[in-house]
Amino acid sequence: MRELYVIGIGAGDPTQVTVQAIEAMRRVDVFFVIGKGDAKQELVAVRTAILDAHTDHPYRIVEIPDPPRERSVGDANYRGVVEDWHERRAALLEEAFAGTEGVGGILVWGDPSLYDSTLRMIGRVLERGALRFAHTVVPGITSAQALAARHRIVLHDIGEPVHITTGRRLRERGVAPGESTLVMLDGEASFTTVPGDDLHIWWGAYLGMPDETLIEGPLREVADPIVRRREELRAAKGWIMDIYLLRRR
């Protein structure tokens, strides 16, 4: 039976890669990367740099074009649109893996368990039954951990929960009293919509990468500077990858 490794590689810093991840990478013959277009080619380059830093054997990279996904959908259609997108991604992964030989690998930004679709894709491929393989998951350092480390904070208050969510859900739910809210996948600066003058924000972009940027302070004081900096970075690089923590004081 063939093997596939799903390897968490951290938030972008090659030194965040664990020994377990390095050992797994050294077993892989071909790595599959879902491309995000020319604007995000830097993400492929970072993965290649990580491989070059930690592997000592020949390997191949097979880039899979990411199928388009409808973005302007209402909440009622959101889940169905995402599941259709995952199905098309799974079909492309199945085709690519079936067309290669040797041990396969997928490098996952951060950790495969947190807002990443790779394991769902693999589950869909296995459910179809046309391609049989065993897969091993290797955990990685998440952007949530990297954010806390760079700001030198604990993600939750004493005896209180931390809520991990998306920008879309933050706009719907806001920040509950006594709860720290960690927000990922926010393309619309949703922190600007949250009411209250007692909120504090810890924000970071491109964590672990050369362009890493951090801003922290009372939300009402730093929201506009964060929005301006996000737009500057997006304009310069063509993409933005950020995360932030909100907490009521």
UniProtKB/TrEMBL annotation:
Organism: Nocardia wallacei
InterPro entries, sorted: 4pyrrol_Mease, 4pyrrol_Methylase_sf, 4pyrrole_Mease_sub1, 4pyrrole_Mease_sub2, CobF
Domain spans labelled Tetrapyrrole methylase: 4-222
Protein's pathway: Cofactor biosynthesis; adenosylcobalamin biosynthesis
Matches recorded under Pfam families: TP_methylase
SUPFAM superfamilies in UniProt: Tetrapyrrole methylase (SSF53790)
Record key words, sorted: Cobalamin biosynthesis, Methyltransferase, S-adenosyl-L-methionine, Transferase
Gene3D superfamilies from the UniProt entry: Cobalt-precorrin-4 Transmethylase, Domain 1 (3.40.1010.10), Methyltransferase, Cobalt-precorrin-4 Transmethylase, Domain 2 (3.30.950.10)
Protein name: Precorrin-6A synthase (Deacetylating)
Alphabetized NCBIfam families for the sequence: CobF
A single BP term in Gene Ontology: cobalamin biosynthetic process
GO molecular function: precorrin-6A synthase (deacetylating) activity
